[in-house]
Amino acid sequence: MKAKLVTIAEIAAALQVTDRAARDRAVNAGWLYTEKSVRGGRQRLYSISDLPRDVRTALSRHQIAAVQAELTAKGVLKDKAPAPAPAPAALVAAEKISATPKAEQRRDGRLELYHAYVDYRLAAGASDRQAMPSFATLWVHAASAIKAGQPLPAALPEAISKQPRWVFEAQPRLSVATLRRIAEAVKKGEIGALAGRYGGRADTGIIDRAYDGRAVEIVLALLSKSDHLSAYEVRRQLRGNLGEDAVMPDGQVVPWPSVRRFQAWIAEAKVKFADVLMALKNPDGWRSRYEFAFGEQPVGEGLNDRWQIDASPADAL
């Protein structure tokens, strides 16, 4: 979101309710606010970070929907996902294999390893407690075979055997404890932590901060139309819609990060902004899971004017 503070009218528009309903919820729930002087009185402003989860998601969805409409008007987004432009051969190769032997390879390799583990566990129909030891053992056997230049054992499950060589090179040894740490990091959306001791890159925050957050809005608008857009295409769309270089909040002009960094950022964003993407792609499903239900509670005018029973028909009978 561009703004850090929002009004009750903006919250109501995002939630698709009346101003009064949004105001009542804010008062009843005790939302924190600040006030500023406006013509005719004072206006309450709410910090987005202090609002409930469903409200934050609705505000993001509302803002990104506006970006979608703008991109659609420009012809960037259509009913179907935009066809990705052909990437230069060097960039295509960079998306398939890791570009460096340290931070990026370790981070991306561990992310691929996690997805392989999830596929393995689901195929086995096992719990984490059952699947992690066997997966770690099989992974080490496969990595050892590749390091020795030997063919992979035929009995390996597909989730492991289909992994490219560079993934095993990124994580040749694997214990249950390491696998558990990787899984926890991915579930928390802490993809950068997968790089381990090598740390992150200096340009990590460029995408998040460029153009006061508008870059993030455009990327989410693109991803909501297609989960399969390449990092190259997302980067190309940002350069086409915002500029050849990124402009930071302090006015500094810096180059956009590499395609590889975009690839990692997108993987992290799909976890971090899962609620927002779900709200954009499946509004009904999002409402049933997250949205706050507004309603009225009928009351009587005096003691014993209204009686209610909270039970199923069978219990009542």
Please provide a written account of the structure.
This protein has 16 helices and five strands. It is globular, with a radius of gyration of 25 Å. Strand 4 and strand 5 form a beta hairpin. The strands form two sheets. Strands 1-3-2 form a three-stranded antiparallel sheet. A two-stranded antiparallel sheet has the order 4-5. Helix 1 packs across helix 2 (19-29) and helix 5 packs across helix 6 (128-147). The relative contact order is 0.12. Residues 79-101 and 198-203 have low confidence and may be disordered. With 317 residues, it is mainly alpha-helical. The termini are far apart.
Strand numbers in spatial order across the main sheet: 1-3-2
Report the uncertain regions: 79-101, 198-203
Task: Give me the secondary-structure category.
Answer: mainly alpha
Morphology call: globular
Count the beta strands: 5
Total of helices? 16
Question: What's the helical proportion of residues?
Answer: 40-55%
Strand portion: 5-15%
Taking the alpha carbons of the first and last residues, their distance comes to 53 Å
Order of helices and strands: EHHEEHHHHHHHHHHEEHHHH
Largest sheet report: 3 strands, antiparallel
Nearest-integer average pLDDT? 76
For the CA atoms, what is the radius of gyration? Answer: 25 Å
Question: What characteristics describe this protein?
Answer:
single chain, 317 residues, mainly alpha, 3-stranded antiparallel sheet, two-stranded antiparallel sheet, 5 strands
In short:
This protein is mainly α and 317 residues long.
Write the layout of secondary structure elements.
Blueprint: E1 5-6, H1 8-15, H2 19-29, E2 34-38, E3 41-47, H3 53-74, H4 89-96, H5 103-124, H6 128-147, H7 158-161, H8 165-170, H9 176-187, H10 206-209, H11 214-225, H12 231-241, E4 245-247, E5 253-255, H13 259-272, H14 274-281, H15 283-290, H16 313-316
Antiparallel strand pairs: 1-3, 2-3, 4-5
